[in-house]
Amino acid sequence: MNRTLLTTLAALALVFAAGPGRAQNPAAVKAIYESGCIGCHGTGVLGAPKFGDKAQWAPRAKAGIDALVKSAIAGTDKGMPPKGGRADLSPAQLRAVIEYMMSGGTAKAPEVAAAKPVPAKADPKAAAKVDPKAAAAPAADAAPVAAAPAATAAALADPAPPAATLAAARAAAPNPAPNAAVNAFNRLLKPVGRFNRPAVESGIHDPTNDMTLQLQPPAVAFAALPKSPAGNHVDWVKSLDGKAIEPRWDRLDSAAAAVVMDLNIVREVKGSMPDVVYPHKQHTEWLDCSNCHPAIFVPQKGANQISMASILLGQKCGVCHGKVAFPVSECRLCHSKKKADTTVAQERKP
């Protein structure tokens, strides 16, 4: 295999294997923020402290970074799910991204002294046989950091040097779970029987918390709602239109009405696929405009580069679709306008 390609694969393997105690470089921390946090912390939705806004972060900072990490792990009663919906993040990664948001992207890894290894009992005979070169090299399993901010340093440290081999990357990475779902990257692409699982099996809620067992199983809660073949198998648009559900628009005012915008945006698509229709009506029945603008979509014609690749990476439409909205497998829900059509349907059809 080409040596350059081998080195690149090794570096990627180390980055994606990052977890508790594994290294994450600043670019990886930024990627976590942009893929999972920017939707709320970029615009201040539901009172979320904005990225780099020192005035908003100051009162929270008084509690200390450990308290902020603990809060992020548990979620908040203001609407933030546990770990911001990213169950895969470790406490070290959460700490790093919180400091990244508090500093406005200028946080740097602190200087951390290497831990001194505990000396073994001296053996004069063994010492006489020690190779000077081997003695000068650090032990492979020596702990690299051991100070109070060790988790932050580990999360922000540079990845492995280019000399790392693919074999070393594989050895360092955790073993994948047996029979792991091939579409695990897209939470709503699940086989029949694996959707709407009880909260204790969701991967989001804490399975060791007794209160998790008290939550109503989604399969029971959704039983009476209109069915859909996609995602969690509920047709949420029909549920809204038929008044089977009535989302509360304001947490404090039960009489507050949603600000609904009935506007369709058509994006022409190259090739044979039908054009994409984005219906504001169905989205604004659920969401305030600030959820998407301007952090995810710039409200200006031609200002947004949208592709299936970016969506699959959790960007643009992928911020929600595949996580809390229907997955990308349902092509015709978005590609709904035939090339020959001169009008656009006002309602998205399932």
TrEMBL record:
PROSITE patterns registered for this protein in UniProt: CYTC
Pfam families noted in UniProt: Cytochrome_C7, Cytochrome_CBB3
Gene Ontology MF, one: iron ion binding
Segment forming the signal sequence: 1-23
Keywords, in A-Z order: Electron transport, Heme, Iron, Metal-binding, Signal, Transport
Keyword Cell membrane applies: no
Domain Cytochrome c positions: 24-105
InterPro entries: Cyt_c-like_dom (IPR009056), Cyt_c-like_dom_sf (IPR036909), Cyt_c7-like (IPR029467), Cyt_CIE (IPR002323), Multihaem_cyt_sf (IPR036280), Nanowire_3heme (IPR026352)
PANTHER family registered for this protein in UniProt: CYTOCHROME C5 (PTHR40942:SF4), PTHR40942
Name of this protein: Cytochrome c class I
